[in-house]
Design a protein that fits this description.
Number of helices: 2
Low-confidence stretches: none
Largest sheet: none
Number of strands: 0
Distance between the termini: 29 Å
């Protein structure tokens, strides 16, 4: 029972971390675009581009993390090693 609970908490932590990372990547792209828009007077185009780039980068990070975790939802060890 304790091992099962530990596994469930680990899975929730992994999913929560991925969600946080995804949201933060989008936010950073949008903020960078906003900054560049204000600097160069191109509003709202660079913010939209930064948001889209952040979304694409966030998806890429989530896909890589899920591929690394594998179908079991547990990582095999440090990245790059088998």
């Amino acid at each position: 029972m304790a091992g099962r609970r530990q596994g469930a908490l680990q899975t929730l932590g992994t999913i929560g971390g991925l969600g946080f990372q995804f949201g933060l990547t989008i936010l950073l792209g949008a903020l960078l675009g906003y900054y560049l828009d204000r600097r160069w007077g191109t509003s709202p185009w660079l913010m939209l581009g930064g948001t889209l780039a952040g979304t694409a980068a966030g998806f890429w990070q989530v896909v890589r993390a899920l591929a690394w975790l594998g179908p079991s939802g547990r990582h095999p060890g440090p990245p790059g090693r088998t």
